[in-house]
């Protein structure tokens, strides 16, 4: 008996260890800095200067700054940190941390950093260097600090002059999202204006038509909303104010222009630039509809800072490809692991700035992943610390989704001939739970005559994956992933189930209960008899390996960065494409061609059981 209990306990430990490996997608670069070890060691002949000192004179929200610096004792470990707000001393430390000790000299992480010799290979010998860094408007001023001692024992050698945008509080980085009904679009943005300073709104209307103003609601949160470190400590940065406006009664497929506005209480107005979007089609409308789906993109830095090139190498390439093809994209789904801030809040601003050209033009729908939600003792299904203490607050506030309760990040949304059911894998999805009931209702309520393309989206792989850690665990899925859900996918004839979390691309056969229901690989005609499962987690974060085990249900694998594009031509024809982020070319594809009667046709476990009596 004791031997049996020991084996069970060992098995549990093994699964937990496997899950931890699965969630270890790299180290947040800012976490390498031992912030609390910082000491002041100013050198008389050390200097650092930043220019220009005033940014955004032409209304830009992003601008490059040039740094010139010198040190009498240069080292290859010297680095430069960018701080915002510019005053970063002990006066900014959390006064409510309960500690009776004097605060450290530095208690907030920089928003980015780079080594002093990055673009100046002669710095070690000459003691002089220069560096160009890109800044975005983030509601405060900036200063630059030259450090010695490396990242583990930082010493402040010199501090620069302050740099600021002309209006740090300006409304920035709009992100569109579908509303709760088909003819509603939401606009969410960030600013430095609270409700006691200005009234936020969106001025909008049909292109070349009359315009109107719609008010916006305002949200924010404080340090106490964070669940742990670093979000509550060195990673904390004031998020400003997040505004959301609801643009209603849109005409299907019409082009609208809009701009963000704040009416200050002195009567003056602050405006953003003008943007535009195309309203969603009526549910069931027959027109060409194009959807992009990926997970785990994260963010990267165009200036090479933060060593993100070793953390999320493909992020900028994915972003670039989507921007280049934006005229051929109608809606985007980023299914979890959004920016990997992991408790360093400044990175959310960086991410929204990176995707602004996309998110300001087409709906940018997100799902919750482990790096947004998971934290011990907070109700997440997994008790790890992947969110860095954010425990869902940032994702739930920075982006709008049409969920009944954004703390329960599951929702459905219709786009023309598509019905999307988005699950939240960081909460329990198993049979009998609140989320399971939602998933069944979402699938069951789809009118397949009008919306023939039924798509299930989730972050963690609830279906099939050949990732090494899933293979080692023995399930080729998230433990307990498909056991409850596969009967729903089969009963309601889900066409494609798509996931992130695993940082690669993989496509299965149409499958049910581990058995391929079709040997066809590229052109499906008639009834699928199963669901095609796709891992599309190669949006940008460091890649994950495949097991050497031959998984017969896996039709295509790619250890590279990329994204999926679905094109519905009409109610009978769907094109699936996998494109690589490095060149935007198609590397895998298939077509589905069928009629409504093929959806109605019974297959294994998809119709009510029949008896002689019935």
How are the SSEs placed, and which strands pair?
Layout: H1 2-23, E1 39-40, E2 47-51, E3 54-55, E4 62-70, E5 79-83, E6 112-115, H2 123-126, E7 128-136, E8 143-148, E9 155-159, E10 164-165, E11 172-178, E12 185-191, E13 198-206, E14 211-219, E15 241-247, E16 255-264, E17 269-278, E18 289-294, H3 315-324, E19 331-335, H4 346-359, E20 364-367, H5 370-373, H6 393-398, E21 411-415, E22 418-422, H7 434-444, E23 453-458, H8 468-473, H9 482-491, E24 496-499, E25 505-512, E26 515-516, E27 523-525, E28 531-536, E29 554-558, E30 562-568, E31 573-580, E32 586-593, H10 596-600
Parallel strand pairs: 1-9, 3-10, 18-19, 19-20, 22-23, 23-24, 24-28, 27-32
Antiparallel strand pairs: 2-4, 4-7, 5-6, 5-8, 8-9, 11-12, 12-15, 13-14, 13-16, 14-15, 16-17, 18-30, 21-22, 25-26, 25-28, 25-29, 30-31, 31-32
Helix pairs in contact: 3-4
